[in-house]
Design a protein that fits this description.
Keywords: 4Fe-4S, ATP-binding, Iron, Iron-sulfur, Metal-binding, Mitochondrion, Nucleotide-binding, Transit peptide
CATH topology of one domain: Rossmann fold
Pfam families: ParA
Strand content: 15-25%
Number of helices: 12
Number of strands: 9
Structural class: alpha/beta
GO cellular component, one term: mitochondrial matrix
Shape: globular
CATH class of one domain: Alpha Beta
Protein name: Nucleotide-binding protein-like
Order of helices and strands: HHEHEHEEHEHEHEEHEHHHH
Oligomer: single chain
Bound molecules: adenosine-5'-diphosphate, magnesium ion, zinc ion
Largest sheet: 9 strands, mixed
Distance between the termini: 49 Å
CATH architecture of one domain: 3-Layer(aba) Sandwich
Family: Belongs to the Mrp/NBP35 ATP-binding proteins family.
CATH superfamily of one domain: P-loop containing nucleotide triphosphate hydrolases
């Protein structure tokens, strides 16, 4: 495909520098060498600079004086709502929730996209059963998302191999994130779901300060060790004035696949209690079930591969609450 070739050629244009190594199929590995890479880590070709207007011509900068120097929020073209799925901890089910939530909302007649903001540990390619390099738009300055199950996806994992580590310092990561935020051709979307990395660091700050988030879904398991970090996540988003849509409790209830015996291996209702204490809405539970894990690993998210299962009901219930919050008017219309 010509645009993919153009994409590679663009990378080759970084003359005299070590090539961005994702052009090398044999040993995909990204390093921080080469200062140009700092400016354009994803190797998206640049447009020729537009000639500067003459002195005094052109409109005055639109940023009010008071706000200069502060990060400006820039909407993502064509996207109505953006939500982030976050938590303090890793391994609590953010990616699994993002994917199944996105699919459940897509099943409600919404155009949905999924952005993997986990640069170091991208999960979306595997979970959505997608691979391959994204093509470039005709204008060659934007990446075209890959689509599966009707959801458009973008991930750092499309640009590097599954086992290749991204060995980047913070600056490169932030620049790559900016490119993933603003140089992807999503087309018209009702909702973009962002699957966040764990923590309350650079990525979380960049995303909450650079794009207008309609809200955040906090995922936590019921153990104290996860809840402590979930609280930190909540407090961070509160500090930067991003609304919290609510809390999802993952893996509280375990249903034995053999005898259907129910137990609370990680404790009972901790995330629900925390939501109450922090005056947040509780969006629902997702039980711990080996089927969710196995199907996720195979790239067959439960919402599409087991549409009639109990698991899908959990995700659909959460999706309905999120949709009611983002589009309160539809709730009124259907009431
Ligand atoms: N409700 C669940 N039942 C069973 N396994 C789950 C459930 N939620 C997540 N998992 C599994 O737990 C692991 C971590 O989930 P993941 O979504 O990658 O977490 P995170 O994105 O927060 O790091 C994955 O193997 C996933 O399949
Ligand atoms: Mg994840
Ligand atoms: Zn059993």
């Amino acid at each position: 495909m010509s645009s993919t070739i153009a994409f590679r050629r663009a990378a080759l244009r970084l003359e005299g520098r070590p090539l961005p190594l994702w052009t090398c199929k044999a040993k995909r590995f990204i390093s921080t060498s080469g200062s140009i890479l700092h400016e354009n880590p994803l190797g998206i070709p640049r447009k020729p600079p537009t000639p500067a207007p003459g002195r005094g011509s052109g409109p005055a900068p639109s940023i009010p004086r008071m706000q200069r120097g502060l990060p400006q929020k820039m909407p993502i073209k064509g996207v109505k709502h953006i939500i982030a799925v976050a938590s303090g901890k890793g391994g609590v089910g953010k990616s699994t929730t993002s994917v199944n939530l996105a699919l459940a909302i897509a099943g409600m007649n919404k155009r949905v996209g999924l952005l993997d903001a986990d640069i170091f540990g991208p999960s979306i390619p595997r979970l959505m059963n997608l691979s391959g390099e994204p093509e470039l738009t005709g204008t060659e300055d934007r990446l075209v998302p890959l689509t599966n199950f009707g959801v458009k996806c973008m991930s750092m994992g499309f640009l590097v191999g599954e086992e290749a580590p991204v060995v980047w310092r913070g600056l490169m990561v932030m620049k790559a994130l900016q490119q993933l935020l603003h140089q992807v051709e999503w087309g018209d979307l009702d909702l973009l779901v962002i699957d966040m990395p764990p923590g309350t660091g650079d990525t979380q700050l960049t995303i909450s300060q650079q794009i207008p988030l309609s809200g955040v879904v906090i995922v936590s398991t019921p153990q104290d060790i996860a809840l402590i970090d979930a609280r930190k996540g909540v407090n961070m988003f509160k500090k930067v004035n991003v609304p919290i849509l609510g809390v999802v409790q993952n893996m509280s209830l375990h249903v034995c696949p053999n005898c259907n015996h129910e137990s609370h291996i990680f404790g009972d209702g901790g995330a629900e209690r925390t939501a109450k204490e922090m005056e947040l809405d509780f969006l629902g539970d997702v039980a711990l079930h080996s089927e969710i894990c196995q199907l996720s690993d195979k790239g067959q998210p439960v919402v599409v591969s087991r549409p009639d299962s109990k698991h899908t009901q959990y995700y659909k219930a959460i999706a309905s609450k999120v949709v009611a919050k983002l589009w309160p008017e539809t709730k009124l219309a259907s009431a």
